[in-house]
Design a protein that fits this description.
Elements: H1 12-22, H2 33-45, E1 51-52, E2 67-68
Antiparallel strand pairs: 1-2
Protein name: 2OG-Fe(II) oxygenase
Length: about 80
């Protein structure tokens, strides 16, 4: 397992409590706006590679209508 360094200004106790209580946590400003823009541009450049998201039984649009693109090693930003 690889160690991950968490920024000191993140409230780790709150994050853990949120995960325990809700299954998710929201961290405001976790990424800079520059990084967010770069990821957005990278996604846009691979827009034609996105696929319909599926569940165990395949693509069922009335249950899940989003689109996915798995991160790839050649993606420089994400």
């Amino acid at each position: 397992m690889e160690a991950v360094i968490i920024p000191g200004d993140w409230n780790v106790d709150q994050i853990l409590d949120d995960l325990d209580q809700h299954g998710f946590s929201i961290v405001d400003d976790a990424y800079s706006s520059e990084y967010q823009h770069a990821v957005s541009q990278e996604c846009l450049s691979h827009l034609n590679e996105f696929r319909n998201a599926a569940i165990q039984n395949g693509v069922v649009n009335n249950i899940r209508s989003d689109h996915i693109l798995w991160l790839q090693p050649e993606f420089q930003i994400s």
